[in-house]
Amino acid sequence: MASSADLVVLGAGPAGLAAAWRAAKAGRSVVVLDRAPVVGGMAGSFAVAGAQVDHGSHRLHPNTPPAIMRDISDLLGDDLQRRPRNGRLRVAGRWVGFPLRPAELARRLPLGLTARVGLDALAAPLRRQRHDSYAGVLRASLGPGLYEALYAPYAKKLWGLDGARLDAEQARRRVSADTPWKIAARMLRRRGTGQGRVFYYPRRGFGQIVEALADAAVAAGAKLCLGAEAGRIVPGDDAVTVSVRDGDEFTAGHLFTTVPLPALARLCRPGPPPGVLEAAGRLRFRAMVLVYLAHAGRPWTAYDAHYLPDPDTPVTRISEPANYRDSADDPADRTVLCAEIPCDRDDAVWQASDEALADLVADALARHGLPPVRLSEVEVRRIPFVYPVYETGYAEHLRGLDEWAGTLPRTTTFGRLGLFVHDNTHHAIAMAYDAVDALGDGSWRPEKWARARQRFTEHVVED
C-alpha cells in the first residue's frame, strides 16, 4: 500500500517521537516507522515479574534544558518525580557512596590511594596536557592515580579497549568532571540540590517518557506504524520514498532518520561510494546484555545502583528500578535487579545462555560483598547497538559517512545512533526540536541545521 506525508520519521525512540510530536503540532502530516512492536527503543520500559524495568539504568537529568523539561513535565504531570541519588561505587576494593562525598572518601578509601590522588591533584599544573587518547587526556587532567583506579578499568569494560586505543574525544564526551578540582567542587555542592545529587524519573518507569511522547504525537495527528522495518530508502529531489519490508511504501517531502548511520548507508538507493561504505563498516558499536533477576523480597538493598569498574567481573552496573521511584504499582513482595554487561556481538557473553548469565551475575555479587538474590525469575535482553566506540581513527571513518549522509536530498539524520554520539535522552530530544525548527514550513534551512549540529558537538554525557 502506498501512502504520502509531509514527513516520515524512522525510529520511535525519544528523538524520533519528539520530532514527530513537534512536527505534528505544527500542522504537518507525519508518519513514524519502527521495526519494533513497541515504542521507546533503549529508552523504553517493560515488565519483569510484575515490575516495570528499563533497558539498563536511565534517569532524566536536572540539567535538561528548561523548555524540554517543561514539555515532559506537562506530559507526565505528577508522575514525573524528583528523586535523590543514592548509589554506590566500588573503588580499590571498597564501597563508597555515589555521588561522591569528601568525608566518606577520606574515611573509606585506602590511605595510599587517597595520598596518591592528593599528590596528583597538587601536581596537576605541572603535567603537560595531552590530546592523543582517552588515557592521555585523563592521565594528564585527573592524574595517574585516579585514572588507573577508576577510569582505566571502566573504559576497558564499557568499550572493550584499553584507554590508549580510544580517541581523546571519548574523554571529552563522557567525563564532565575532568580535573580533581572539578570533582571536588561537585562533591562540595550542598547536599540534595547539586546537579549530581538528584534526578527526575517517571512513576511507571523511564519508558513512560517515550510512551507519553508517542501518545502526544498521535493525538496531534501523527501516524505511528510499529513492526514496520524499512527495507529501502530512495531520496530524491522532489520526495523521499521509504519501502517497508511488508510491502508498504511511504513517500514524503522530508525524511528524519534516527537509525544507525551504517544501517542508513545499507538502506539507501543508490548507496554511498565504495570507500564510504567500507569506512562505515569500520565504525563499531558496543553491544550489551541486560540480565534481569527477580528477587523475592523488597528491597534487595537501599541503593538505586551499584557501579562496578573492577576488572574482575564483566558486570558494570547493577540497578534496582523500584528504588528509582515511589510507586504503589510496584509489587510489595519482590523486586527486580538489572545487571548491565557490555560485550561484542560475537563474544561469549553475547552467546551465553540465560542460566550462565545469571550465574555470572551471582558471582559478581559474591565477589563484591553484595547480598545474594533469592531468585524467582530470570529474563535476558540483548541490545546490539549501545555505545559508539571512539577507537583511534574513528573520526576519519565517520567524517566520510556523515558527509555522504549530508548530501542526501530531503533527508536528515540525528539522535544517538544517527549521529554516532554518546548522548543522554534530553540531548536526543533537543536534536529533534532543532531538526523540526530547521524544517520550518517545509523548506529545509541548512544554515540553521548547521548551527544546531555545532551545538550538538558540545554535549557531554551526564551520569
List keywords for this structure.
single chain; 463 residues; alpha/beta; 7-stranded mixed beta sheet; 17 helices; 24% strand
Can you characterise this structure?
With 463 residues, this protein is α/β, with parallel strands linked by helices. It is 38% helix and 24% strand. The protein has helices at residues 14-25, 66-76, 102-108, 111-123, 134-142, 144-159, 168-174, 180-188, 207-219, 261-267, 274-282, 348-351, 354-367, 394-407, 416-419, 425-439, 446-456; strands at residues 2-10, 30-34, 45-48, 51-54, 80-84, 87-91, 94-98, 198-202, 223-226, 230-235, 240-244, 249-257, 284-296, 305-307, 317-319, 334-343, 375-389, 411-413. The strands form 4 sheets. Strands 1, 2, 9, 10, 11, 12 and 18 form a 7-stranded mixed beta sheet that branches. The chain has a 7-stranded mixed beta sheet with strand order 7-6-14-15-16-13-17. Strands 3-4 form a two-stranded antiparallel sheet. The longest helix has 16 residues, at 144-159. It starts with a strand and ends in a 7-residue tail after the last helix. The model has no long low-confidence stretch (mean pLDDT 92).
